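Supplementary Methods, section 5.1.

A reviewer requested that the exact input to the structure prediction be made available. We therefore reproduce it here, unchanged from the version used in the analyses.
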Amino acid sequence: MRNRGRVILFYRIVVCGLAIAAFAAMARPQRPTTSENKDAASNHVSVRLQSFAQRLQAPVALTHGGDGSGRLFVVEQAGIVRVIQQGRVRDAPFLDIRDRVVSGGETGLLGLAFHPKFAENRRLYLNYTDKSGGLRTVVSAWQADATASRVVPKNERVLLTIRQPYANHNGGQIAFGPDGHLYIGMGDGGAGNDPHDNAQNLASLLGKMLRIDVDAVSGAPYGIPPDNPFINTPGAAPEIWAYGLRNPWRFSFDRASGLLYAGDVGQGAREEIDVIRRGENHGWRRMEGTICTPGVRKDCDRRGTTPPILDYPRSEGSVVIGGYVYRGLAIPALVGRYVYGDFGNGKIWTLRYDGTAVREQHLLLATGRNISAFGEDEAGELYVVDYGGEVLKIVPTRP
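The structure derived from this sequence is encoded token-by-token as follows.
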């Protein structure tokens, strides 16, 4: 009951005004530990979910350290990072910063990224919300101990703080791109319909995809990559890589193509998947997905905006959760397909994008889970994070 209570709080705030859907989520029956694809003939992929780790508290992210250890690291919203090794959650946390995190709804410890050379320098990065002098997003650097088995909280080095005008739409994902730079997904600052028009304002870091150089050798906390698109635009924040986003809760890079895929959570009409490239405007708040944003204006100027590669109406889902392009070995038929889901209805889909358009899209699984994130291990195998407290692995129905 406690997990389902947290699910409702998260759901009601992420999807403003959908109280009916929240009560429906609360009324769901006990869910099985596995879910199987009953539509293998339509997409030629037959998979199921296999329970991998349990008894977690509001998990919201999962990643690996790229250090060959085989460990997975799961982020609990309240401010703990836990280690999963050989399918077991270690009792001792990898990191505990609950004393500095404000958590609940869409706030909390929301993102974790390991430096590409973590095996050598033991550096990692967090994205969380605190309330020092008002709610704000903090992106900071940390260092694990000599054995890389835990992180001492006093080792924090703050890189970037961003004031949050409201408690929702904080983004939260951070990830290193193939270029070695750190990308930071920022929501528009919250409320409804982006009342301050932050997403279209190049002077604001809200409603953006940011890109910074954490290895800069100057005295500043971070550097600005010289090819960032607005570095020479008067009045623009040089950290901006792309803009016009509402709440890019989860994004990832395709290991093969390097493309950045993001799930941008919608307002009340559309959910969208974007491929984000340098300098693009993804339209919010003028556009919600491929339509003019309801309630903002009856018509909108689409010129200069990049539409999503795919969007879907609220009749098909209510909180898109960005995933990964599968590059593992266990499920050959899934290779090259982008796997994503929806927190509201627990469905998981795949799509195949050829660099220009989506050529196919299929339902992979109907899980009944409250999917808060997807995760990837070092081998490229994929995992589903259930906000109710479990991590599940996507595995072939028949090995």
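The chain has one domain: 53-328+370-396. These observations are discussed further in the main text.
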